[in-house]
Amino acid sequence: MDKKLVYFLCTGNSCRSQIADGFLKTLGSDIYEVKSAGLEAHGLNPRAVATMKEAGIDISNNTSDVIDPELLGRADYIITLCGHADEHCPVVRNDKAERWHWGFEDPAKATGTEEEVTDKFREVRDSIKSRIEQFLKEGK
Predict the structure, then answer these.
(1) What are the residue numbers of the active site?
(2) Which ranges of 62-113 does DSSP label H, i.e. alpha helix?
(3) Nearest Cα to 124, choosing from 84, 62, 82, 87?
(4) Confidence of residue 92 (pLDDT cuts 50, 70, 90)
(5) Entry pTM
């Protein structure tokens, strides 16, 4: 059986799309091929890596990539995780792809004490995990 390709997109492919990528690879890699990318590649956010490690998922070897037109063209699901990517995602000549926007706050923009910033990363991580679990439960 061919796995369906899920392509997570964000502005910089450093936080939210990486977290979604990590969760879906961990929870659904038997069903889905999972990729993530950004309009730009900003590198992995160290706090995203640390927050995912707390959840038992290692994304430290992930790479921050720009959108690949070939992957975009063969994706079954194109899921944007930030408004900027949703508005600026390239036009997709792909009639089979379902496009969804799952808007999450950018934890990298959080301000405050170290603890407050870390808490924002955890909050966004947990919200993304819940959305991934819903995606898996719905069978898509």
Answers:
(1) 10, 82, 89
(2) 69-74, 83-88
(3) 82
(4) low
(5) 0.91
